[in-house]
Amino acid sequence: MKETPLSNCERRFLLRAIEEKKRLDGRQTYDYRNIKISFGTDYGCCIVELGKTRVLGQVSCELVSPKLNRATEGILFFNLELSQMAAPAFEPGRQSDLLVKLNRLLERCLRNSKCIDTESLCVVAGEKVWQIRVDLHLLNHDGNIIDAASIAAIVALSHFRRPDVSVQGDEVTLYTHEERDPVPLSIHHMPICVSFAFFQQGTYLLVDPNEREERVMDGLLVIAMNKHREICTIQSSGGIMLLKDQVLRCSKIAGVKVAEITELIQKALENDQKVRKEGGKFGFAESIANQRITAFKMEKAPVDTSDVEEKAEEIIAEAEPPSEVVSKPVLWTPGTAQIGEGIENSWGDLEDSGKEDEDEGGSDDAIMLDSIKMDTGLEVSGIGSQEDAPIVLSDSEEEEIIILEPDKNLKKIRTQTISAKQEKAPTKKPVKKRKKRAVN
Amino acid sequence: MEGVMLADAKIRAETGTESGPRGPGCSLRHFACEQNLLSRPDGSASFMQGDTSVLAGVYGPAEVKVSKEIFNKATLEVILRPKIGLPGVAEKSRERLIRNTCEAVVLGALHPRTSITVVLQVVSDAGSLLACCLNAACMALVDAGVPMRALFCGVTCALDSDGTLVLDPTAKQEKEARAVLTFALDSVERKLLMSTTKGLYSDAELQQCLAAAQAASQHVFHFYRESLQRRYSKS
Q1: CATH second-level architecture of B31-233?
Q2: B179 and B199 in contact (C-beta within 8 Å)?
Q3: How many domains does chain A have?
Q4: Statement: the pTM of the whole predicted model exceeds 0.90
Q5: A-chain residues within 8 Å CB-CB of B79?
Q6: Alpha carbon separation from A416 to A90, A199, A268, A410, A421 (Å, rounded)
Q7: B49-91, pLDDT tens digit by residue?
Q8: Chains A & B: contacts with CB separation below 8 Å
């Protein structure tokens, strides 16, 4: 699906509003949207909501051999996915420019800032290190993906616990969650991205632009910073020229915002840990607001299954005995055999190209049989005699003409087989069916 | 097939009357559902069965690519996204099962030459994932207001090594089970729309599982009704 274009009057309206220092959602220039962080039941899983933008983060780990030039360092891998759920314009499985840009920025923000101690992820130098993989899925796109994604990534990383390992000589033992408490990653600091949108060649500035604002902006400045006010990454895009003062002002704002967000993250992490320790309920089901009318919960429901055995027996007793099953495979040609009842496969109906060849072969076959029947005047019945029927792969021109002719019938055959399948008429032998249709 | 049945009969004879599908296994885990939680899709729902959670978004009826256009009905597309890594063969096969189920109930002929896209995101997998996907897809389709002949639900049954039937199994139960069967049932006649199975079972057991799934579907449809009643209530 294509993106709905923004109309000119909408664009003018938005720009006018920004000039008048007004935002459609009622925020002030430097206001962030509300951030909500919820955790899943497994470690390293979180959903971050930034206003209506929503990102799902999941961290996983794996033991791999390290890179040759970095024998004592673990590997960090980031993968942001723009799911079609987030916006109809995102196509699955395509690396769009936006996606590449976001992934690069995320890597620079989190890997190159060395916020995770990669040396602590080494198990055996040069042989075994942990590979930490961060998967981020955008679930709903309402602007400022990068901020939401960077928060989700760092929250998921701080929430994650990897299984404990011990090394004795050459032997590496991996402990499950039950055997030993899993260990958290060592995180030095939390870099968080803050985006600034510029309008009218840098005259106006907005923090945390939403989707509408992003579409009318001239340029974007992303600053990644930690709570110690250290800049981890800075990126300006959109080709606007900024003054030194503007950049400094932005970094000051970013410092304030990052401090707020870091505090919020820490509070959320503490809360989750407390609940887990006390053995309370946790997970996404708990984060659903109960008073919302769009949400509904049901407690565990017992299902009365005492009569299923009787029911099953009844059905089996009523049912007709199953048709004879052909257990012996039928050999068509050397290397091509058939088992089952010979009903046509409906898989790959969409992928016609591969099928055409098969069909041709099939019809060819049917014609062959038909001609045999006419020649000999004998009823060829059963699969046993099928085996004896000579199978000749035609290559003469005459034969080719015959192949082209029943092409119209072919469709009929296919629909008939489908309807036959629905009717479940297993008594008829498929071989016979084919012959009759070929005659038709 | 007969060998399996015989072996099964033997097991049943050995365990006596206790082998029947009774006990604590025959209950559904707690359910939770939230609709209309995403702003971009036309309809969305998050469905939770115990710790299993799936988020679904529906776009449609909307513009369709010319290559996918069907002249007399809507093109239904299902995309299932795993939580970790890229979608593989397992996801493709599930997508197909879900799509076939949806196609059976969605009245696509009312919207010819359009596309209806269902995007499913696995949020956490703790057993009965396919059933949860089906339920989430149904709730999202309802939220999007896509015309349907009937509602549908998914129910997973697992059969233990001793033939005990477990409804809505957890990941651990699924792993230990001899067979795992997932059914999709419609709400009007409680008839089977889709079934997929894994493992060994006899035909009697299949019918038992189906009957149990039908009993469980009553609860799921009751849950659907209550949650929609709550949503469209005036107070």
Answers
A1: 2-Layer Sandwich (3.30)
A2: yes
A3: 1
A4: no
A5: 83-84, 92
A6: 40, 64, 61, 10, 8
A7: 999 999 999 998 999 999 999 999 999 999 999 999 889 999 9
A8: 180
